[in-house]
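Have a close read of this protein, sequence plus C-alpha cells, and explain what the C-alpha cells say about the fold. Thanks in advance:
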Amino acid sequence: MDMIKKPVKRQVDVLRPPPPEQPPWLIYTHGTSKKKQIQTFFTISDNNSYLKSIPILRGKSICGSCHGWLILRDSIDPKQFSLFNLVTEQSLLLPPLSSLPMSTLGDTELSTCTLTSPPYSEGCILFLFFADQVFSCRPTSKDEDGTSISSSCSWVSQKVDIDGKRTGLYSAISHKGLIYCCALSPVHRILLLCMKVADDPSNTLTKFLQLEEPICTFRRATSNYYIVESCGHIYWVCPCSRYGQDLSINDVEIWELDMHSKKWVHVKCLGGRAFFVGLNCSTWCWASNGLQENCVYLLVPSENDKIFYSYSLDEKSLTVFRPLPNLKTPYSTPVWFNAMPQHEHQRLLAWHDVQRSLEFTQIGSSIQPHENERRESECKPTKLPEDILWLISKHLHLFDYWNFQASSKVFHSASPLVPQRRPHNLLPLFIFFKNNSGLCQVIDPTRDDSQYNILQVSSDPFTVDCSKDGWIVVCLRESIKFFNPFMKVKGDFPPIRNILTHEVSGIGFSTNPTSPDCLTVLFENHVEGIVIFYLRYGDETWTRCQIVNEDAIRFDVVTTSSVYFGGAFYFIDVEGCLGEFRLVGDEESWQVYDYPIEVDLRLHSCHLVECNGKLFAVYIGYMGSWLKVFNFFNHPEVKWVQVESLGKYSLFINNSSSFSKEISEEMGIRNRIYLSRLYGDSIIFYSFKTGKFHIDGGDGSLKDFSGTKKPMRSCWI
C-alpha cells in the first residue's frame, strides 16, 4: 500500500497554494524544466494573480479538477497519474496505467476526466477517457487521523461505443452515480450521453440515457459544448456562432435537462449563479465578491489560451479578458479550479430560494394613475396650446423626446407619433437589445447619459444583421424581418427554401425595404462555393445565384453586413478580401479582390463603410492590437491606399452596420472611429490623432480590448 503524507507547512510562500477564499481560480502551468516549472493562479473576483512553484505540481500537467482536487499527469511518464488537493495539500499517487497504448500521440491524448466524489469518500471513482477507451479506479481509503490518504486501487478499462461504433467522449461530469458527457454520434450529431456506474469493482459504465443536443437558435459550427452540474441539475452550455468560417461567438445558450420528460428546457436566468466552463473542467458558484451573476465564464479551446470570455445573460453581451498578457511561454491550457466543494455551495443557499429578476422601469411608470392625474392638473406647461407643445417636442433630443412623451398624457398626445429628424441628434445612436421583449439601451456618443426603451421586435430569439437609413433587419431561426423603430413600420422578407437563417450572412439592401427601387442581397455559406440570394422589391421569392469561384482567392464571408456602393454590393471575408456582386438587369457578376498587403492576417474584425463618396475598409488587429483603414480603388487600376486621417469625418462601425458622419469642428470629435464595444456603459473609440483606443468621456487610453464588452444584438442607427 502506497502512503503519501500530507506535506509539512513550508516557510516560503511561493511553495504554497494561494488562500482559497476567492474561488474559483484559473490555473496556468508554464516553464520547461521540472525545477523551473511554475504556476500562475488568477482570481476573477479580485483580478489578482499569484505566482507559485508548488513542488508536487512540477513536471506535471493538470488534466482537470473536480471536487476540490486536481487530476495530474506526469510529463515524463504519461502513464503516471496522481491527485492533489490545493487546499489541504493532500496528494495521492495512483498506480501506473500499464495497459495504455503508446503507439501514437492520438492514442494517448486524454479527452476528459472526472471524479465521482472526493478521494476520501466512500465510492469515489476516477474516470479517464482516451478516445473510445475508459480507464477507472477507486481511490477510497483514508487514514484515521485524516493526515494522509492511500491508494490500493487497480485500473480497469472498457470500450465505449454508440450503436456498435466507437465514439469519443469529452466534457465529462459526475452526479448521483451517473456520468454525463458529450459524444459524437456515428452520423456526426452531438449527443448527451448519460452512463450508470456499476456498484462493484468492475466500474462498468452502462448507457442510461442518450439524448441529442438541444436545438439551439443559431447552431455553432464547432463542437465546443460544455456540461455543468449545479444545485442537483444538469446544464448544457452552448456557445453559438452562425457562420461557417467565422467562429466568433455571437450568443451563448443554456439548457437544463428535465430528467422526468428527458427533454431540454431553455434557461434564461441562472438565479444569481455564475458558471465557469472549459473542456478540462466546468464548475459554478454563487456570484459575489466581484463575480457577475447570471453570467457564464468561458475558456474557448480554439482561441488564444491567454484570454477568456464572460457572457451576461441579462445584457446579452460578451466581455473579453486577457488577465495575463505577459505570461511566460510555453504554458499549458488553463484549468478552472473551485476550491469550495459543491455541497458547500448548496448549503449556502438553496436554488429554490433564489428568485431574482431584472426589472426595468420607464420614466413615469412608477407613478400611480391618480398621482399622475394630480401632477398633470398642477403642471402649468400642460396648459400650453397644443401647437406650442408640438413645437417644443420637435426640437428635443430623442432621449428628451421619449421622456417628454412619458411624463404626461397631454405631452404624449401633443407630440408627433413619429419623431422627425432632429437637429440635436447629430450622431448615429448605438442601440443594443438586452432581451427578447424588445428592451434596449440607446447611447448617444455626444451625451453622458443613456436611455432605455422598448422596441418590440420579436418574442423569439433574434440577431441584428443589418441597419441602414433607420431600418433594421433581424434574423429569427426561420425568418428574416425588417422594421423601422421610429416610423413604427415592419415587414417580413419571403422565406428562403431549405435555408435556415444561421446559414446566411452579409445581408444588405440598396435603399429602404419599402421603396420600389430596393434590391436586397444576402450571402449563403455553402460548402460547394459562393451562393448569393437577391430579392427585388415586389418579388415573392429569392433568386439564387450560384457562383463558380474562378479566382485563386478563397472567399469566406465574415459576420458583417454588405455595403451598397457605386451600383454594386461589397462583402468582406474572414481574411479581409473584398467581394463585389453586381446586378445589371438579369446579368450577374462576381469579382474577388485580395486584401491589402499591409494587413496582418491575425484579425479581430473587419468592416466596410462608405465615407464621402469613397469605399473604406477598416481592419482591427487581434484584441485591438492595431487598427488600419484603407481606401479601395478599382478604376483605373485596383489598389488599396492606406488612410492616415478621416479629416472632418468620423466612422461608426458594427457587424450589422457601419456609417460615416461629417462632424462640425466645435464638437471636437472628428477623426475618430466609434466601435460597437463598451467599457462599462461608455463607447470605445479609436483616435487617429493619438493612434490609440479611448473610452468616450474618460481619460487615458486602452492597451487592448481586455475588459471591454460587445453587446451581441446591436447596431448603429
In short: Residues 369-414 form one domain. The helical segments are 105-108, 342-348, 369-378, 386-394, 398-407, 409-414. The CA atoms of residues 366 and 372 lie 10 Å apart. The first helix runs from residue 105 to 108.
